[in-house]
């Protein structure tokens, strides 16, 4: 099976992970600036210095031959305090980037929020504060007004489940709260912000708009009814909570306080989207918890699979399983899908493991399409080795190796493989 004409091949990055220049161009402080200043953590102060080297990175993408580049805008560059008019210097940077992409026939795919919330908004409660959803809509309107005529695809939020879980439930990511199920309001307010942003963008652009969710099939590890129930609960929390309400089904039973969801919220969240962004890395092994455990499920390793340098199992059939499962679960309500992130962490410029990973996952997409799933594009995470959040610079996902001392970029074996795949598919 060949990929259809018009299938989009792309690469993805995010602002805090690559831009650097955290104190330039009028940029305000983000929660990641604050979080990484604690306990001697690695920071994104320089990262890949993309803010100054974006032209070099666009040239790399042109050499790669991608159709599209998915990047994120740093909210603190546009509104240093999370409110107020747009910062002209911040807008100007993304103007330059978008125009450079278009000059190379690369479609700009813009994500509004990839976790770098302005610290000023976090000081008022961050995503636990309902007001942040309305501030996000105002920010979306500003970016839409500046770039709505040129961006080809819009993504409101990146992985609200991961941001809620690691940022608000367990504290591994910024802003560093450990609230367990007390983090659920952060999920609702992100989704409310998504719906409000969709509405704001509709007035500024005719390009397709959606969201990019992290999805992980919940695979029960054990055959007891309790194991199956635990997997169903985890599936509801990780996957259905961030899809059902988008498609007009409301929330599954996940323990969300009814007082958090106001009248009309679900209608806003269900504002029509044009596609669904799917970020996939691996399935999650789930079993019943021990008596007295704080959560209604226990996450366990999936045995029998190779693992990446991140310790994640390599399970390409999990992607096929996920996509076909969506078609079964949502039927005609399921919009077209873009794989907005797919990648793996491995060391080395010669990276045959990454080639094998990407090849197997592209084939998993083919298998899902053969089963009737409407997939429109595939974006590799990531173009560059970058700042990998809590892992600092110890995990490398890039098609391009970055020497963080010199900022020299070196395309890897996987870069050449992906270029050949793109050329062969046309």
From TrEMBL:
* Keyword presence, Hydrolase: yes
Provide the E.C. number(s) assigned to this enzyme: 3.2.1.21
Task: Show the SUPFAM superfamilies listed in the entry.
Answer: (Trans)glycosidases
Q: Which UniProt keywords apply?
A: Carbohydrate metabolism, Cellulose degradation, Glycosidase, Hydrolase, Polysaccharide degradation
Indicate yes or no for the key word Iron: no
| Reactions it catalyzes | Hydrolysis of terminal, non-reducing beta-D-glucosyl residues with release of beta-D-glucose
> Which domain of life does the protein's organism represent?
Bacteria
- Pfam families hit by this protein: Glyco_hydro_1
- UniProt similarity note: Belongs to the glycosyl hydrolase 1 family.
Q: What is this protein called?
A: Beta-glucosidase
Identify the taxonomic lineage of the organism of origin: Bacteria, Bacillati, Actinomycetota, Actinomycetes, Micromonosporales
